[in-house]
Write a structure and sequence with these properties.
alpha+beta, Thiol Ester Dehydrase, Chain A, two-stranded parallel sheet, globular, disordered N terminus, HotDog ACOT-type domain-containing protein, Thioestr_dom, hydrolase
Length: 507
């Protein structure tokens, strides 16, 4: 009875307290919300002002074309003018938010789009009227000659001092998230392409520039997230309607006596120009390299372009040459399929150090949202690379059994554009492994993106990605072994051979 009475007293006491607090809760919640919201906004603004060194909003002045784009990680109101001053990545001084890609993107991506947006400003301002005006505007008729310096653009990440920015790029192992960095590299390459193709004439309609491919994005050392980072790039070569862009990511090693930037990653992008009204290929401004390094890069890319064209011509060679190639390819296919047939027909006798390609597969899917679009209304290529990398990393992780170490993006083909609302499926597999070097075994992962349209019962390949990973040396010292990957179908064997040929493994 005493326990029951005590419980009743406590219950009544709690009810009285609850009633009292509930009568005060609207004001209490409002005050607490204000206290929680206002200091957070102010602290972000002060932190960004301190870490980036940006002055208070004022009328900016023009600056040199290759001055670094500053990146801030907060969002605040206020107006700002156009020009070459520091760019606030979290807002648009010119456009309402509804006319810009959504807040999904990183502050770096937003900053780059803000930097290039003035070229497309009249189209965004007028909406449908802008499209009618664009149809009346003539295409560029007189090509200009530009230098790599005129398109050179750089971005500095203040990871050492900007806590908010650093947390956006940190991965679980205290390094930079490579997938997120891929978004920024694609956005930077697009900005550089826009700069090179601009004719500074508001009476001509701007070109539509799309990413055609990415070649040899090579990681030379791990990228830390607690040290400032810089990415910079410029046009290295142009064809009639194509633009080659090289980007370098540099980061100073901690504790190093050297104060110069050290290259952490290099990437090569190829963009193609289309007439924004007809969709046909359009000529781009010429390139005139000035420095010895610029001339060397121009020569290398020119030789690569000629080699690619010569190979295309050789593929159209005579019947005899074609028959010989078919015979050689048939032998290679049979060699690759031999072990796969053992897995299928005599699984108990199959090599335990090998695994079928189909058993390494992973897959995910998504609906492409408006927040993931670029300035042309299509899905941002950097977003696609980001998602593909995350799936490739997971595939390599599940295959190796240890955290994989990213080495390079071997090749990316952008075959078809991806639109808002598309049902996109990413399918990945370990395509093959290279185990010749026991100190650095290589795991080659392929990711294929399919645009699927259930209403039409149709599926098309929009992108193919190829990534290379390895494992840390400590895992290998502890006896980690990586399996061979073998195909079980001719289609899988052909994909392996095509990729190996592209990498020159049979030369």
């Amino acid at each position: 009875m005493v326990a029951t009475a005590t419980a009743l007293v406590l219950s009544r006491s709690l009810l009285r307290r609850s009633a009292t607090s509930s009568s005060r809760s609207p004001l209490g919640l409002e005050l607490s919300a204000r206290r929680a919201t206002r200091p957070f906004s102010l602290s972000q603004s002060r932190a960004a002002s301190t870490t980036t060194g940006d002055p208070p909003p004022q009328t900016p002045t023009n600056s040199s074309m290759d001055s670094p784009i500053k990146v801030v990680s907060h969002h605040f109101g206020g107006s700002g003018g156009e020009g070459g001053g520091a760019i606030d990545a979290g807002r648009s001084a010119r456009k309402p938010l509804s006319l810009w890609p959504g807040m999904y993107h990183s502050p770096v991506t937003n900053a780059l789009w803000e930097a290039r947006s003035s070229i497309f400003e009249r189209m965004i301002d007028a909406g449908a009227g802008g499209q009618r005006q664009e149809q009346q505007q003539p295409p560029q008729t007189e090509l200009l000659t530009k230098t790599p310096t005129q398109s050179r653009t750089s971005i500095v990440y203040k990871f050492a001092t900007d806590d908010i920015l650093r947390e956006q790029y940190r991965d679980p192992w205290n390094q930079v998230r490579i997938g997120k960095l891929l978004e920024d590299l694609d956005a930077l390459a697009g900005t550089i392409a826009v700069k090179h193709c601009s004719d500074e004439d508001s009476t001509t309609r701007p070109l539509l520039l799309v990413t055609a491919s990415v070649d040899k994005m090579e990681l030379k050392k791990p990228i830390r997230v607690d040290t400032d980072l810089k990415i910079a790039g410029a046009v290295t070569y142009v064809g009639r309607s194509s633009i080659d862009i090289q980007i370098e990511v540099t980061q100073v090693d901690q504790g190093s006596d050297m104060h110069s930037d050290l290259i952490a990653l290099t990437a090569n992008f190829t963009f193609v120009a289309r007439d924004s009204m007809t969709g046909k290929s359009a000529p781009v401004n010429r390139l005139s390299p000035e420095t010895e390094k610029e001339k060397q890069l121009f020569g290398e890319r020119e030789a690569r372009d000629k080699l690619r064209k010569r190979k295309r011509e050789e593929q159209k060679g005579g019947l005899e040459n074609g028959i010989h190639k078919l015979h050689v390819e048939s032998e290679r296919l049979n060699s690759l399929l031999a072990e796969g047939r053992v897995f299928s027909d005599l699984p108990a006798l199959a090599d335990r150090d090998s695994i079928l390609l189909k058993d390494t597969r992973l897959e995910n899917s998504l609906i492409c949202q408006p927040q993931q679009r670029n300035l042309h209304g299509r899905i941002f290529g950097g977003f696609l690379m980001h998602r593909a990398f995350e799936l490739a990393f997971s595939t390599a992780y599940a295959f190796v059994g240890q955290k994989p170490c990213f080495l390079e993006v071997d090749h990316v083909d952008f075959l078809k554009p991806v639109d808002v609302g598309d049902f996109l499926r990413f399918k990945s597999c370990v395509l093959y492994t290279q185990l010749d070097n026991p100190e650095q075994p290589l795991v080659n992962v392929e990711v294929v993106a399919h645009v699927t349209r259930p209403e039409l019962r149709k599926s098309e390949v929009s992108n193919t990605f190829h990534f290379t990973f390895t494992v840390c040396s400590d895992a290998l010292k502890n006896g980690l072994k990586i399996r061979h990957v073998v195909p079980s179908t001719e289609e899988e064997a052909r994909r392996i051979l095509e990729r190996m040929d592209a990498e020159g493994l049979f030369d």
